[in-house]
Amino acid sequence: MSQIIDGKSLAAEIDAQTMVETEQLKQNGITPHLVVILVGEDGASQIYVRNKERRAQKLGIKSTVIKMDSDTTEKELLAKIHELNQDVDVNAILVQMPLPKQIDEFKVIMAIDPKKDADGFHPVNVGRLFENEIAQTPVACTPQGIMEMFKKYQISLDGKNAVVVGRSTIVGKPMAALLLNANATVTVVHSHTKDLKEITKKADILVVATGIAHFIKADQVKDGAVVIDVGMDRDENGKLTGDVDFEKVQEKASFITPVPKGVGPMTISMLMKQTIDLTRWSV
Ligand SMILES: Nc1nc(=O)c2c([nH]1)NC[C@@H]1CN(c3ccc(C(=O)N[C@@H](CCC(=O)O)C(=O)O)cc3)C=[N+]21
């Protein structure tokens, strides 16, 4: 049986520290301000954005949600981002992904001032991450939250076999960079990988971010592995579930994250922390 990594309570611990730092900034006359742009009506995105807004409020961080129509043009969105880049009252900008198909996500990410890049998705920040030069550099929140879990549960990474399933800009690639920077031996597998199961079975650390419900079954997991589930999927009954077959895999793993109350709450905590960091770095 494995130990369940409690993302929700670790998130609360991190939030308590962020709240102290927010208060300190406010006493110096600075109110950290996060702006979230939501384009269109995607149901999941609306929930995530609401969660972010609620958390910011709880921590005393000023947050503004800008809602734009699903038929917003790329030009209109870029103009809004330029306006926010110039606005000295704004410390952090997040454009919720995915974007409607008429908008090029990479162009949007490129338009955000790297110093206000709440997600750490701008190529300048991604480049710094891959060079392991992360002082005063925002880093993708989900992988950062996962690193906090390893730290809290004293899971060592040095020399370990780490396998990342998925190669997205949001999770897979920055996760691989962070693990590499922590001296793990990193393999990234994806939809074109041959013998994926043989590779995941060798993982001491397995991070799964495929977006496919219960993609990883017990026979793909090594005994005693640390299993991190980034999935936010829906099962047949519309219930939130992960990319890992939790019930079976938890019998084999040493540590496992649940869905919900695992990686998700940590992502939001890291976003709040990063908003404070961006604010501090800018003064
Ligand atoms: N620019 C951008 N930045 C993101 O960070 C970003 C994004 N776009 N697009 C979508 C993904 C997804 N994401 C989640 C954050 C929190 C939860 C979360 O709070 N999950 C709760 C449950 C939520 C529920 O009940 O539905 C939990 O796991 O316990 C989930 C998903 C951030 N993302």
TrEMBL record:
Sequence positions that bind NADP(+): 166-168
One GO term describing the cellular component: cytosol
Keyword annotations from UniProtKB, A to Z: Amino-acid biosynthesis, Histidine biosynthesis, Hydrolase, Methionine biosynthesis, Multifunctional enzyme, NADP, One-carbon metabolism, Oxidoreductase, Purine biosynthesis
EC annotation from Swiss-Prot or TrEMBL: 1.5.1.5, 3.5.4.9
Matching InterPro entries: Aminoacid_DH-like_N_sf, NAD(P)-bd_dom_sf, THF_DH/CycHdrlase, THF_DH/CycHdrlase_cat_dom, THF_DH/CycHdrlase_CS, THF_DH/CycHdrlase_NAD-bd_dom
Catalytic activity: (6R)-5,10-methenyltetrahydrofolate + H2O = (6R)-10-formyltetrahydrofolate + H(+); (6R)-5,10-methylene-5,6,7,8-tetrahydrofolate + NADP(+) = (6R)-5,10-methenyltetrahydrofolate + NADPH
Pathway: One-carbon metabolism; tetrahydrofolate interconversion
Keyword Lipid biosynthesis included in the entry's annotation: no
Domain Tetrahydrofolate dehydrogenase/cyclohydrolase catalytic residues, every copy: 5-119
Domain Tetrahydrofolate dehydrogenase/cyclohydrolase NAD(P)-binding residues, every copy: 140-279
Amino-acid biosynthesis among keywords: yes
Gene Ontology biological-process annotations: L-histidine biosynthetic process; methionine biosynthetic process; purine nucleotide biosynthetic process; tetrahydrofolate interconversion
Gene3D superfamilies reported in the protein's UniProt record: Leucine Dehydrogenase, chain A, domain 1, NAD(P)-binding Rossmann-like Domain
TM helices/strands, residue ranges: none
Any one GO molecular function term: methylenetetrahydrofolate dehydrogenase (NADP+) activity
Cross-referenced HAMAP family: THF_DHG_CYH
Role this protein plays: Catalyzes the oxidation of 5,10-methylenetetrahydrofolate to 5,10-methenyltetrahydrofolate and then the hydrolysis of 5,10-methenyltetrahydrofolate to 10-formyltetrahydrofolate.
Oligomer and partners: Homodimer.
Similarity comment: family membership: Belongs to the tetrahydrofolate dehydrogenase/cyclohydrolase family.
Name recorded for this polypeptide: Bifunctional protein FolD
This protein's encoding gene: folD
